[in-house]
Amino acid sequence: MTIESFIFYLCGYRVIAELNLAIEFSQAIEWYDRAIAEAKTNQFLEQEAIANECAAKFCREWSQEKIADTYMQAADDCYVQAGAIDRDRVAQTAAVNSQLKQSHLEILLDRQAMEIALRESEERYCQMVSNVPETLYQFELSADGTYKLNYLSARFAELFEISPAAALADVSILFDRILPEDRAGFERSIQATAEAGAWVWEGRISTSSAIKWIRGESRPIFADNGAIVWNGILMDITKRKQTEIALRQSEQRYQKLADNIPGAIYQFRLAPDGSTAFPYMSSGCFELFHLTCAAVMADSNCLLDLIHPDDLPEFHRVIAESAQNMTPKLWEGRAILSSGEIECVKSASRPELQPDGAIVWDGVLLDITDRKQVETELYQANHRLELTNTELQRATRLKDEFLANMSHELRTPLNAILGMSEALQEELFGALNSRQLNAIATIEQSGQHLLSLINDILDVSKISAGKLELNIAEVSLTELCRSSLILVKQQAIERQIYIDTHLPYDLDRIVVDERRMRQVLINLLNNAVKFTAKGGLVTLSVRLKLLEVDGRQGNWLCFSVTDTGIGIDSADRSKLFQPFIQLDSSLNRKYPGSGLGLVLVKQIVELHGGDVTLDSEFGVGSCFTVTLPQPDLDS
Predict the structure, then answer these.
(1) How far is C-alpha 121 from the geometric centre of its chain's CA atoms?
(2) Which of 173, 202, 223, 230 is most buried, by CB atoms within 10 Å?
(3) DSSP category for residue 590
């Protein structure tokens, strides 16, 4: 070995040694020792001295003074053994030292630059990993079946609520967080990924604060020693899972709602080329048309072909109008089912224009067969009712004509009978004995009763026909009550019934039809006297009240006729105010009458804009109250 080659050899060893300082100091010294041993083997004393001196300088750079002194002592011994050194040899040695120092400096500078770049790279990597919102990990499955975690990023503590150091020391505490019902799936996924490649798993973990959903993704790396290493990511997908669950529950609710709604919910699509489709049809389609929703969504014509031929033009017109104006579509028509049965259906939907130019209607189909049958029956009933009303109007007209004719035919001879009776009673045709006078009086009373009955019938007929007009005027309340009481007072005296009155002292002028109101009071007073037993009491009272009717306050005049008679049973009250009906309807009635009095009372009062009410207790008595609106006379 030449001196030049040794210098190159020594420099190489020194570079290798110092490059390995990053690994271990003792390994670098080992490389110096190899250089010294090579020089000694070749009996290069000076080169051995130089190698020891370089080793000494290297040790001093690392503050290893004692080791450096040992190498310097060995270097001095080599120089002594070599004897005097000529200038060329010294210069050569100095050149070698200079070259070694320069190489050493360059290596140190390169090493520092590499260390700085490495630190910066590590800092960037650590910053990047810390900013990743998920957990990065490295998981290793050894060939013997044991497993461990080699790396966990800081986000692991936030996700699992376990320190990374604890999980790195014992990976089982991580697996213990997986819910038991999800653990079997996790283990199967690990086994499957060793064969299939990429690993993806979603499951739940239990932490001290909550149950979380996580997703793991990685791809295995197969090492030469049989181990499998997964570098991957763990993500918190709890919110996404909650959203998916809520969405699935919402879809289930709406699907259940669509299935339970009577009829069928649908989506109908009309493409720009005129083709049609049902993108959605609920299960109610089968109940309506005996078609599955899948069949209708696969081919819209299987449903459209069921439309009755007579109803197709209207269906197409409604579709075209709704598409043109983008207005809701309402259509009713008939469908011919496969069984031949005709079903009436109603479609209601709203259109929406799609980006591709198609129009989609979201709507509902309803079975209206029962409703159409009811409408048909109602139409027929209304038609029959119209015919009946026409017949009733004709009968009423004939009745009015008959009563008008009969009133004339009855009044003419009746007036003659009454006139002759009065003449006979006044003995204009000669003197009569008492028996004859009594007979004439009976004829006259019967005639008057018959005339009153005819007048009542005519009044009821006029009111029913709307031909009775009121003569509303300001009249005296006192005079109206007095004249009414005069006509019933004689009957009350004969039956020993006491009549009492209660009239307001500060009210004398009222606004009514005097003749018709006298007719009302006479009818009520006559009934009170007629149905009151001997020794009873009949009271006529009048009062002015301030009442609110239909949101407006006003003065109302109240006439009350109260008796202590037989009263009216609650079951019989519905029969009141009906013409020609008396509560005592037996053949030998105890109380005579035509049954028209209360009918006239009610109709006359209602013509005044008033009302009649009854308060009665069977066996105790009755009270009929007539309420009439009154204007403000002061104004």
Answers:
(1) 58
(2) 230
(3) S
Convert 223-258 to b/e letters by CB count within 10 Å (16 or more is b).
eeeebbebebebbbebeebeeeeeeeeeeeeeeeeb
Cα(333)–Cα(309) distance, rounded to whole angstroms?
Answer: 10
Q: How many C-beta neighbours within 10 Å does residue 146 have?
A: 10
Q: Rg (Cα) of the chain, in Å, rounded?
A: 61
pLDDT for residue 16: 44
Helix residue spans in 216-276 (DSSP H):
238-260
Phi, psi of 499 (to 5 degrees): -110, 125
Residue 404, CA distances (Å) to 460, 461, 547, 604 in order? 12, 9, 41, 20
**Region of 466 on the Ramachandran plot (φ > 0 left; ψ -120 to 50 alpha; else beta):** left
Give SS3 for 538. Answer: strand
Please give the full DSSP string across 373-422, using - where no structure is assigned.
HHHHHHHHHHHHHHHHHHHHHHHHHHHHHHHHHHHHHHHHHHHHHHHHHH
What is the pLDDT, as a whole number, of residue 589? 47
Q: What is the model's pLDDT at position 537?
A: 92
Q: Are residues 17 and 31 in contact, defined by beta-carbon separation less than 8 angstroms?
A: yes
Contact 488, 522 (CB under 8 A): yes
Provide the sign of the torsion angle of the four alpha carbons 435, 440, 443, 448, taken in this order.
Answer: negative
| DSSP type of residue 503 | -
CA 427 – CA 421 distance, rounded (Å): 10
Neighbours of 385 (CB within 10 A): 12
CA distance 522 to 504: 20
Of the candidates 371, 366, 370, which has an alpha carbon nearest to the alpha carbon of residue 349? 366
The one-character DSSP state at 353 is E
Cα dihedral across residues 563, 567, 570, 573: positive or negative: negative
Please check whether residue 593 is in contact with residue 582, taking contact to mean a CB–CB distance below 8 angstroms.
yes
* Residue 304 three-state SS: helix
Cα torsion at 512, 516, 522, 527 (round to 10°)?
-110
**Contact (CB, 8 A) for 532 and 563:** yes
- Residues contacting 149, CB < 8 A, separation 6+: 137, 138, 139, 140, 167, 168, 171, 174
| d(C-alpha 532, C-alpha 616), whole Å | 13
Sketch out the chain's domains with CATH numbers.
3-127 (no CATH), 133-243 (3.30.450.20), 261-365 (3.30.450.20), 368-468 (1.10.287), 469-630 (3.30.565.10)
10-residue block means of pLDDT along the chain (635 residues)? Answer: 47 46 61 82 82 84 84 85 55 61 64 73 66 81 86 85 88 88 87 76 89 89 85 89 86 76 86 91 85 90 91 91 90 88 89 92 88 88 90 79 70 78 80 84 74 70 69 89 86 89 88 87 88 90 82 83 87 67 48 65 87 88 91 63
What one-character-per-residue DSSP string does 270-300 give? E-TTS-EEEEEE-THHHHHHS--HHHHHH-T
